[in-house]
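Pipeline run #58 for the internal structure catalog. This entry was flagged by the ingest filter as a single-chain record with no existing model, so it goes straight to prediction. Upstream metadata was stripped on purpose; only the residue string is passed forward. Reviewer on rotation: M.T. Logging verbosity set to normal.
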Amino acid sequence: MGSTQIRRPPAPTDAERARSITARGGMASLVGTGCTPSTPTVHHVWADGSAAVLLSDGDPLLERVTAAGEAGAAAMLELADRAPVDLREPVRALLWITGQLTVPTADHARRIAARIADVHPDPALLDLGHGATLVRLVPGSVVLSDAEGTAALAPVALAAARPDPFCRYEQHWLSHLEAAHPEVFVALARHLPDALRRASIRPLGVDRCGLRLRVETDVRDHDVRLCWEQDVSTVDELRTQMGLLVGCPFRRAAHEAGKAAERADGPEAVS
C-alpha cells in the first residue's frame, strides 16, 4: 500500500519570502554572545542579508563589538514579521541573520546612513555621532521560519531573489478590506473545512500566489493559504483573482479594496 503525499498549495520560494521580510523591515532585535538582546533604533537589511544597525552608545553589545576591532564580534539579527492587522498572535514569520558585527569608520558610517535615508528616511539617523553608533553585520547564514516551514538560506540565494510584488502595501489593502468589507471574509469561509467555517477569519497576508488567512478558534489558530487560479504580479491581476476567489455578490467589495490600496500606495519597485 503506497503512502499518501500531502500536496501543499503553491507559495513564493523561501528566498522570496525572506526578501519580502527584509523589504518590509519588521521588528528587529540584535543578539550577541553573552549579551542581553539589543533593540536597534534603526535597522536596514540589503538584498544579500548584510545589514546596518544603529545602536545607542553604551549598549553592551556595541562595547563588545568596538573592543573586537576589525575582527568583529559574532551576532544574530532577528526580524519579526508582523501581520497587517492586530491578531492575538501577531508575528507571522521570523528571519534570523547570523554573521559578524563591525564598527565602520565615522566617514563610512555617514555614507551608509545617507544610503539608508535615500530609501527609508528615519529621523533617528540624525542621532549618528550624537549618542548613537552605526554597526555593520556581514552575513554568514540566514534562517527563515514561517507557516510554510523552516529554511536555511545562503546570502547569495537571498540576493538573487526578488521580494513579492505586493509586500510593501499589503498592510493597507488587507486592513482596509477587513475594516470596510467584513462580508468578504464571510464569503471566503466556504473555502475552509467545515470545522473552521464558523471561527474568526482574519487576513494574514497576500502574495503573488494567493491569500493567507488566520483562522482563530477557541482552541488554537490555523494559518490557511487560498491560491489564485494563476500567479499575479499587478494590482489589476490581484483584483481579478480576489474577485474569483470571493465570488459573487462580493466581487465589488474586493474590487473597491484593491482600488483603495492602489490609491494609497500603488505597486512599487522593490530592490
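catalog note: Residues 170-264 form a domain with the Split barrel-like fold (CATH 3.20.180.10).
catalog note: The CA atoms of residues 86 and 175 lie 9 Å apart.
status: ready for reviewer M.T.
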